[in-house]
Write a structure and sequence with these properties.
The chain is mainly α. The chain has helices at about 10-15, 20-50, 55-60, 70-80, 85-110. One of its GO terms (cellular component) is plasma membrane.
Length: about 110
């Protein structure tokens, strides 16, 4: 949908000016898709940051913690090590980071 929203006149003007396909992509396509890309990056970051269930069910953190994320670490600290204070710290940290990314998302949506 984002690519279809770019006016064909912009590509035509770039071709008339002698822009190659790569230059059209860099100077026409990317600037036009910037708002969409920013929103997608923020939403994917929020989703990935809070992903726990998929990682836990597939790898349980992986060999040597290779696939461990902060949500999985919070679970391990709280329920496996029974360190409720550390688990709470991880949970508050996750909340604060999610809040920051959500604020960025709302700022980007507000510009549209």
């Amino acid at each position: 949908a984002g690519l279809r929203s770019i006016p064909e006149q912009l590509y035509e003007a770039a071709r008339v000016d002698g822009a190659s396909a790569w230059q059209q992509f860099i100077y026409v396509t990317l600037p036009q898709l910037r708002p969409i890309l920013l929103i997608n990056v923020v939403l994917i970051t929020i989703y990935t940051f809070n992903t726990y269930d998929l990682i836990y069910s597939l790898t349980r953190g992986g060999p040597g913690g290779a696939t461990s994320v902060i949500a999985l670490q919070a679970y391990k600290e709280t329920f496996q090590l029974m360190d409720l204070g550390s688990g709470a710290v991880y949970a508050v940290l996750m909340f604060c980071l999610s809040l920051i990314f959500t604020f960025i998302y709302h700022q980007l949506i507000g510009r549209r």
